[in-house]
């Protein structure tokens, strides 16, 4: 098996990441700048650093009750190693949780130049296509994390045609629908990442980086509480006598 | 199932992390500061931020050939979703790769007050106990990432009794052994995390946070190269006719 | 969190699976029969047992070089617990490896009543839609596992309209294409599972059950060989100086 | 990377498993016999087949509330692919759930020839060493699955010195303790696998094979119920204002 890479070169006891010596990066650059470097191939401007930093912080945790944190804590409660519990937590993400940014970016890259947004919304409603990045179980009116990110994007002059389109699209959805549907954090990050020129295939990447510390904090809390392995109580399980097929 | 948590509180459309409103953290704090907050419960000083930042950057990648990156790329080459490939990559870590910091921290917390280090080394040699955090496949003389971290720890006046003990212990190993055995990056991080007052159960946590972007960069590279699913060539498999039992 | 289930009922120190006491199943039924029971809700006939047994045996292993076995062995070589290495191996499956049966079943259930198969093939070629379940890297002419399964399905009189359609479709592909494209094991299992009346969502399930022992055998072999952690040699990594973006 | 294997040889379009052509195995052998072959290198006797079959059936499911099934269902509820949800479920196993057989086998292989069992029990109690394979959350008096397996092992004349020692040890624990502590299913399987001559490193393997169908049945049930992504209700989360450190 042969692998070609452009990310990291290890030579003569030196490690070079995208052309920069790791030893220098360790001393001179922030974690966020080096994350940007890994995916873009160049170091970010100060504004890009602030924007990416804000997205990572916005993603960092959302409590123990979401699928990813639950899985991480359950696996930790079985006394698995921290890294195994982390893997389990990550498998709690899925099309319904955390990875919607990718779909949002694909949607924006395909549709941003359309002008009849009302027509687009009604066509998608007719086809029952649900665009990822809108709506949230807890934040039903507005997702404060999304709003904070867009506000910052405006201040940093990163808010561009993709973020603008996302808002026009959201307004049109809400005009055609009876209940409000906010842009959620995945959607906001997707729109802003488009405005920063990232590939749609990176649409879940920064959320995953941002949330990893949160999952690990829940694993650590589970380890320190050490209340034994988690399981449902009998009262939480209802047996229904139905044949599977 | 009931979960108690002290990490994140979500109330009235506000998310509060360890007593700080997420909206404020997004605008005012760096990702590294909020990571520190998650695990310690308070915000770091400037020096602590620099130190933790350096450890995260030092961990960020080590090329495509290590077990974790290989697993991540193989899983991505089967066209799994980014988050599933990340989980697979994380399961490439293990007692032999990436998680040694925890063992190092447990060792340091148990032994730091011993004064007969020569006796300790010869006793461990006799018992064939291998302390995690020493030695590296590529960096056989010295691990430049470990050295960069210790240098910074000295500059920041974080280098304390645990880092000092790790060096004394390493010197004694090398005095009693014919081939040099450096402190590796896991060991350096373990020693410094002790000096920063972190719990030994967090001994692999910061490495996992630091390396997650590296795994995701390899997943993205695999997705963009798209050379089909990876497998060993026939020439890389040798069939040996041995009965299993 | 509340979960409704119809699978297993635990009451008064008795465990009842789909209406059958586990203690009786342990003594009277084969593993394959109870697997069938789990998913169908009733016990299989002798013919159905033979057919399902054959599919599970056919799936059991395909050597150490495929993505799933590679991942399992790499994770085991890092000295992870057997179950963690198994999880890693399972994440080596993906749309390009092992889970094509589901797509095949969805295809067959949607198209089995079409009569213009030549037209269907040319339309799919035009749309560049690749139906899962056809073609194999090693078995380019014919997949002997698929052929053995179809032969048995005929003997057991399970070979029905779905298996027949799969062959007609394959013949038409080969008539319109220059290189032969066999039905692979995933495709054969998909077609036969349709003829047995299984839901398309179970299209990867029986392959996963069948291959799990194979992955565990590779993990065990890796543990007994114990050659240290696996990684690519320097000669297997090529650094190419390209910017990521 | 080079891998040596003795499991499967693929040559001239033929696949040979431990010296047996897969095509023949598909037609002539049961899944359980081929599982035995994979790990032992030879085909089992009729009695060995019955015993292994019983262990696999006994392991097949234990309801939706245990950590592994919960994780599998949560991951499936996020709409992950079946194989990803299965990996998540497997990461719900751990030292406290499902993998105790390995520890039991190591214990039995080390201690089976000791004659002062009362002394051994009191020594272990003093050292606070808990031998894995004893005790169960639901089955507090006796684990009916364990009893069914031991009964069958006696009938098949497989019940030997390891199973006998396990019972003597259990009786001694119960003589020295106020509350009854049964041999659980992991312990029973561990003892019987010792009597069948299996390596202790296979101590969790057959449980994992046996339970995989159960996890997949829960994943399928979750997919068919499709009640949306699972999460804890607000009432199930209690925020406690404690600093982490």
The computed structural class of chain A is: mainly alpha
- The name CATH uses for the topology of the domain at 101-201 in chain A is Cytochrome p450-Terp, domain 2
Radius of gyration of chain A: 21 Å
In DSSP terms (H or I, runs of 4 or more residues), the helix count of chain A works out at: 11
- Proportion of residues in helical segments of chain A: 40-55%
* Separation, N- and C-terminal Cα atoms of chain A: 44 Å
Shape designation of chain A? flat
Average pLDDT of chain A works out at 93
For the record, the CATH architecture of the domain at 101-201 in chain A stands as Orthogonal Bundle
SSE order of chain A: EEEEHHHHHHHHHHHE
The CATH superfamily label of the domain at 101-201 in chain A reads Cytochrome P450-Terp, domain 2
Uncertain residue segments of chain A? none
Which quaternary structure do these chains form? homotetramer
**Strands in their spatial order, largest beta sheet of chain A:** 2-3-4
Number of strands of chain A: 5
Instruction: Please state roughly what percent of the residues of chain A sit in beta strands, choosing from under 5%, 5-15%, 15-25%, 25-35%, 35-45% or over 45%.
Output: 5-15%
Most extensive contact: A-B, 86 and 86 residues
CATH class of the domain at 101-201 in chain A: Mainly Alpha
For the biggest sheet of chain A, the summary is:
3 strands, antiparallel
């Amino acid at each position: 098996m042969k692998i070609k890479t452009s990310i990291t070169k290890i030579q003569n006891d030196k490690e070079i990441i995208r052309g920069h010596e790791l030893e220098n990066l360790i001393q001179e650059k922030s974690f966020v700048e080096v994350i940007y470097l890994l995916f873009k191939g160049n170091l970010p401007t100060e504004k890009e650093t602030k924007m990416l930093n804000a997205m990572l912080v916005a993603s960092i945790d959302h409590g123990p009750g979401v699928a990813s944190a639950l899985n991480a804590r359950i696996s930790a409660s079985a006394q698995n190693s921290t890294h195994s519990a982390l893997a389990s937590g990550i498998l709690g993400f899925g099309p319904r949780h955390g990875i919607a940014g990718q779909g949002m970016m694909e949607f924006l890259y395909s549709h941003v130049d359309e002008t009849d947004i009302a027509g687009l919304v009604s066509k998608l409603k007719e086809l029952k296509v649900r665009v990822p990045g809108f709506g949230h179980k807890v934040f039903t009116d507005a997702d404060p994390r999304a709003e904070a990110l867009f506000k910052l994007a405006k201040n940093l002059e990163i808010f561009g045609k993709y973020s603008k389109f996302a808002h026009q699209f959201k307004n049109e959805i809400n005009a055609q629908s009876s209940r409000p549907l906010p842009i959620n954090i995945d959607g906001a990050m997707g729109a802003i990442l488009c405005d920063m020129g990232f590939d749609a295939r990176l649409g879940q990447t920064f959320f995953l980086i941002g949330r990893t510390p949160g999952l690990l904090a829940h694993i650590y809390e589970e380890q320190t509480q050490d209340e034994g392995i988690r399981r449902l109580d009998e009262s939480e399980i209802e047996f229904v006598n139905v044949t599977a097929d």
